[in-house]
Amino acid sequence: MTRQVRTRLLVAAALALSMNVQAQDDAQYLEAAERWIDSEFQPSTLSKEQQLEELRWFIEAARPFRGETINVVSETITTHEYESQVLAKAFTEITGINLVHDLIQEGDVIEKLQTQTQSGQNIYDAYVNDSDLIGTHFRYGFVTPLTDWMAGDGEAVTSPTLDLEDFIGLSFTTGPDGKVYQLPDQQFANLYWFRYDWFSDPEIQAQFREIYGYDLGVPVNWSAYEDIANFFTNEVSGDGTVDGQKVYGHMDYGKKDPSLGWRFTDAWLSMAGAGDTGIPNGLPVDEWGIRVEECRPVGSSVTRGGDTNGPAAVYALTKYIDWLKAYAPPEAAGMNFSESGPVPAQGNVAQQIFWYTAFTADMTAEGLPVVNEDGTPKWRMAPSPHGAYWEEGMKLGYQDTGSWTLLESTPVERRQAAWLYAQFTTAKTVSLKKTLVGLTPIRDSDLKSPEMQEAAPQLGGLVEFYNSPARVSWTPTGTNVPDYPKLAQLWWQNVAQAVTGEVSPQQAMDQLAEQQDDILGRLERIGMSTCGPVLNEEQDAQYWFDQPGAPKPPLENEKPQGETVPYDELLQAWKEGRVR
Questions:
Q1: How far apart are CA 491 and CA 511, in angstroms?
Q2: Could you check whether the bond before residue 284 is cis, i.e. omega within 30 degrees of 0?
């Protein structure tokens, strides 16, 4: 036997041994996949055979990274707790990649992300952060555009079953350049919440009609919401009680706290009617009141063509303060977002105009005053009412879209492994079960599944809303905001001054608009590589009021006739493909 032949035989033997070891390793991970499919990943829109085939791809793609430890982070909500406690463990057992999924507060997620982008030091290998930062991400260049990634360094680790078109929030994570920057991982909207049992009570209905001259129902406009708030706080049963219990027609929060900023940046101004028409966000003026020309922010103040301190924005802040003081429980003004969230479940609140569907799971627990003995809710969710300045074609509310984000400062190999986990947590194998646990749907196929339809009666309208044409009018903060972290912190500080009475609503919004313009000016001076701000010269406010669209001049009547719609008719409209 020649040396050359012996060499070939040795190579072949080594290859065979390697393939045998690899097959044995894969068998271990396939066995884990089968175990997880049977024990945890049900129900799914995929058959068990399809689930196993999808996970087989993850096993093969993960081979180069086995034994590595990957660190990711997200805020603390039910969906991410499920990922951290269940899916991270499953991913490790199925792929051999050690996955550490940290849970911290939302503000801390942003702080870590900023620190990494500014220092270049790799703190986490992937982040779940809100798509509200899309305007920041596509301008600064520190986020990896997923469109480029999936065609380049991430191609070999991009799942063939990812099915981007199935994600209901993909437009929210897409920049003006048409590139996808983030992968949606969870979504929840702020909707209108109300006590369906009280609104359906014939005696209560008769009392309302006698006083207000129209039917008690889901309010279409803020006038009706205000009437209903006053009715339940002061007039139902003659003294604001139901079954002898003191009730309130409104719930909110007003503590001087960063979460007070979300109460406004999460589309409150557009619900009032500030900004322009346009989905997912108003153009050229968005729901923050920031005007863009082409893709460049040019101002927030009315004198620069913005709407942050316009009549609609001042109306939005004024109504918020008036309702908080007149119709909410007295303690609400001292609460933050987290503290106020569970209050409606205590059973003494009739409605809430600004209610996040992320609280759905907490509002359906057995034994709560707002849950029937059979487990169905006494409450329902419905589209938010709009303010006096609102017009057709404007967004009508906010939708949070927590999304997987990769940073350029993360080494490519670590990004690749983290990208596998991001896809795993959103894969069809696990997404339906995750949706049923956290009630933050991301896939259209999950929403249309028989299992979601079966769960619908226990979820108070969540499934019906997400399957309705109304869904597209609830969107996150858009691309007009060039630096979300810098600008967002201004809101709660100025709003808080108006809540305490230190300044008037007009003064608070004037200060906010001026401060936003100051930051836009600073960003203009330092320069941004993509679509940076270029401030308009100031002009008299009337000049802009005379132009089409936002900013809109003040209305003579900010409280038109109240309008309501029966909830059951609304559901039927959704089933027929109509908004209402």
A1: 10
A2: yes
DSSP labels for 205-231? Answer: HHHHHHHHSS--SEESBHHHHHHHHHI
For the chain, how far is it from start to end, CA to CA, in angstroms?
A: 84
What is the set of domains in the chain, with CATH numbers?
Answer: 28-129+144-181+412-462 (3.40.190.10), 189-256+314-399+560-575 (3.40.190.10)
Which amino acid is residue 100, in one-letter code? V
pTM: 0.91
- What is the SS3 assignment for 165? helix
Give the number of other CB atoms < 10 A from CB of residue 247: 19
How many angstroms separate the CA atoms of 363 and 6, rounded? 72
Chain centre to alpha carbon of residue 90: 26
9's tokens: 């035989």
- Cis, bond preceding 297 (omega within 30 deg of 0): no
Q: Is the dihedral of CA 445, 446, 450, 456 positive or negative?
A: negative
pLDDT digits (tens, 9 = 90+) for 411-423: 999 999 999 999 9
Instruction: Give the whole-angstrom CA distance, residue 570 versus residue 244.
Output: 31
pLDDT tens-digit readout, 110-138: 999 999 999 999 999 999 999 999 999 99
| Exposed / middle / buried, residue 191 (Cβ in 10 Å: 0-12, 13-18, 19+) | buried
How would you write 453-512 as a 3-class SS string? Answer: HHHHHHCCCHHHHHCCHHHHHECCCCCCCCCHHHHHHHHHHHHHHHHHCCCCHHHHHHHH
Tell me the HSE value of 454 on the side-chain side, using a 13 A CA sphere.
7
Angstrom distance (rounded) from CA 94 to CA 39: 14
Tell me the torsion sign for CA atoms 192, 193, 198, 204.
Answer: negative
- Please compute, for residue 557, the number of CA atoms within 13 A of its CA located in the half-sphere on the CB side: 5
